[in-house]
Design a protein that fits this description.
By secondary structure, the protein is an alpha/beta fold. The chain contains 14 helices and seven strands. α4 (49-60) packs across α12 (271-280) and α6 (101-115) packs parallel to α7.
């Protein structure tokens, strides 16, 4: 019985893409790192952390990078702009606050204009954490974290997908977390938002099979990035306005809000950009749905495995949904 297999569906497109990059490939291949020549990559949250590291790394691997961040002009943006000019990197700064419908669509349209066509890759990297017991999370904090970590990714995906669909190719990377599959007490709604992102992304992966677009969920462990600084700022603000009726139930946990210390983490944040680049370079239709990234324990792996097995056993034989599920899980 014929299957909607992404490998066969996209073989022609992958071959054409590889042929177009032939001239630069030998030079970049000599470094032992992926060649991203000809790829147009848009990254959200590029002011620091994985986004900032990825913007530079992808550009050095030959990509045209659209580094987006909120609040331009800002020092982080000017620093990246100066680096791009000094090292002749193809990096373009665009202001996008993922919470803003008024910025997302025009920002993506500007990237497509500069690129002369649809984007190849979206890296949904922008995200926040607000730490506290769930009961202490007021509606202001709850709306902000869901709007950033879930709705922001949805806004961005909706903005880039029409262009990708016209070309029958593209990639979405969703930066989730180990805590998108396992739960740590007192981490606020962080897991709730990442669980939601995981589900939304897997559904997108199935629905985009006929359009030749791959979706990969990156699940980092703990890394020493500015996420801890930003989380402390948000958590301190919540602590300052917390209602006593809720905070009184968790005195020890509330006392720790806003004073987290991520300095003891020694894993290299470059693990994430390198893994994304490796996946971009894979043939279309063979890219994994979920990738844990961390040198330490990966408690989510068992859940990823049983989830994939359950999806295939549940829907794999369906005449309408089965081909989509089998294609994503490469079975």
């Amino acid at each position: 019985m014929p299957q909607l297999d992404r490998r066969s569906l996209l073989a022609g497109a992958a071959a054409a893409s590889a042929l177009a990059a032939t001239s630069a490939a030998p030079l970049r291949a000599a470094t032992g790192e992926p060649d991203l020549t000809g790829k147009a990559i848009l990254i959200t949250g590029s002011s620091s952390g994985f986004g900032r590291l990825g913007a530079e790394y992808f550009a050095r691997r030959g990509a045209r990078v659209f580094a987006t961040m909120r609040g331009l002009p800002r020092p982080e943006g000017e620093e990246l702009r100066a680096l791009a000019a000094a090292d002749r990197l193809d990096i373009h700064l665009i202001e996008i606050d993922v919470l803003s419908d008024e910025q997302v669509a025009p920002g993506v349209a500007e990237a497509e204009r500069i690129n002369g066509g649809p984007l190849d890759v979206l890296v949904n990297n922008a995200g926040i954490g607000i730490t506290s017991p769930v009961e202490v999370q007021d509606m202001e904090a709850t709306r902000l974290i869901f709007d950033t970590n879930v709705f922001g990714c949805h806004r961005m995906a909706r903005a880039v997908l029409p262009g990708m669909r016209t070309r029958k190719s593209g990639q979405l990377f969703q930066i989730s977390s180990q805590l998108g599959r396992v739960i740590a007490p007192y981490s606020g709604h962080y897991s709730a938002t990442k669980f939601a992102l995981e589900a939304m992304s897997e559904q997108l992966a199935y629905e985009l099979v006929p359009h030749g677009i791959d979706v990969t969920i990156i699940q980092p462990g703990g890394y020493p990035t500015d996420v801890w600084v930003n989380r402390n700022a948000y958590s301190s603000a919540l602590k300052a306005r917390a209602e006593a009726a809720h905070a009184a139930g968790y005195p020890e946990q509330v006392a720790r809000m806003g004073v987290e210390d991520g300095s003891g983490r020694s894993a290299d944040p470059m693990d994430v950009p390198r893994e994304i680049a490796r996946i971009i370079a894979l043939p279309a239709g063979t890219r994994p749905l979920r990738v844990p990234v961390h040198p330490g324990p990966k408690p989510q792996v068992a859940i990823n495995d049983v989830s994939a097995k359950t999806q295939v056993e549940w829907l794999g034989r369906s005449p309408t949904l089965g081909p989509l599920v089998r294609a994503v899980h490469n079975v």
